[in-house]
Every structure is written in structure tokens, then in C-alpha cells.
Amino acid sequence: MDSFQRRLIQRRDDKFYGYLTKQKLQRLSPSDADVARQEFTAFLNHALSYIEKWFDFSEENWLFHLQPVSLASGKISFDDMENITNRLCLVGRLNISMDDLYEECVSANSLLEHLTQEKEAWQSKGTAERWMEVLQTAELPNIQAAVSFFLTIPSSTGFVERIFSFMKNKWNDVRNKCSVELIKGELIVSLNYELSCSEFYSAALKDKQLLTAARSQKKYKWKKSPHNVALSC
What we know:
Elements: H1 2-14, H2 19-27, H3 30-54, H4 78-87, H5 90-93, H6 98-115, H7 119-123, H8 127-137, H9 141-151, H10 158-170, H11 180-192, H12 197-206, H13 208-215, H14 226-232
Helix pairs in contact: 1-3, 10-11
């Protein structure tokens, strides 16, 4: 978000609204071009006001203190880890030993000196990939517990909103009598399977357990067996 904010500010200050837009502005009269530039600048100012309203860019934001976790600097200090674990109350929650955490930070920094020798390759990797290399090289249980917690925190609500969008498409007015379990099952299949329709069809035909479950009456919980009907009478 900080990088996004800085890019918008830079575009506004440089009065850069895209190269194609720049070419078209040169074809306008000076007065029309000035009006267009003012509108473009107002749009960028509005965008900046919006993100500053909904995102805290100050050091008070707990996300600000997660920056060392990226390992972009090629090191991780105990002070950084202590600050993060205290702010997120992870010591008791994850049963972290701070003494052991200190020793693990020393070991992690020794590993990072070796892993970051190829700077370009290291910088091209994401945060999760960097930590995978570190944690696969040495056993660091306290660091792993803390880092695993950090990396499971969603950076935005985008993924959740995407799920709701999928759900709305499946649970529409035409299918408003579908059960929660059915919609949940459809969402799980839609979001986790990367097979095409034909590939999924071929795979399903080979899965005997799946075919048996599909033919079973167990999925129809509202259906009563003749035995249950007789008992209810």
C-alpha cells in the first residue's frame, strides 16, 4: 500500500497520466488541455484521499512493524521479532520461548548470509519463498510458529470478496432453495479444482468412491426411507 501511494503521488506530481494520454493532450488547445489536466489531477487526489481514509499509513498500524518479516534486507533481528510477537500477543498464544527465539534469530542470520549471496535471485523471490528456504535449511520451531502466523494474515479482503461474488452467482434467485451444504460444495470444487470440464469428467469416471457417493441416497437428507415413514405413522 505504501508503494501504491507513492506511485500515485509521483504520477500526480509529474503530471503523468499515461503516454497515450500525453500524446492526445498535445493535440488539444491549451485551454482544453489545462482543463483535462486539472480533471486528471483531481482524480488522482480523490484516489489518494480514498486510500488514506481506509488505510492507516502511520507507524501506529501493526502492519508497519511486519516489514522486517519480508527479509528484503537479508537479515532478521531479535528486536524485530520481539516487537512483532509482543504487538500481536503471540508469546502466550503460540507458546513461544523468547530465549530460544533469540538463539534461532542468531542461527537464521547465519543462514541468511549464505542464502543472500546471490542478491538478484534473493530479491526476485517472495516473502513466503524466502522463509521456505530458511526453514527448510534449519529447524527453527519458534520462528516457524511466528512466521506461519504472520503469513496466514490476509493482506486484504479481496479474496473473501471474490468468494462472496462466486456465492452470489451460484445462490441466485433461480436457485434460492439450494442448501448451504450444496453451495459450499460447489464453491470448494470451483475454487480448488484446476481441471477443465472434460478433464474433470474423465477423472470422475475413474473415481469409484466418488461415483458411489453420487449414486447414494445419503445426500438427500430430506428423503425418508419406507422404514422411517412407517415408524412416523
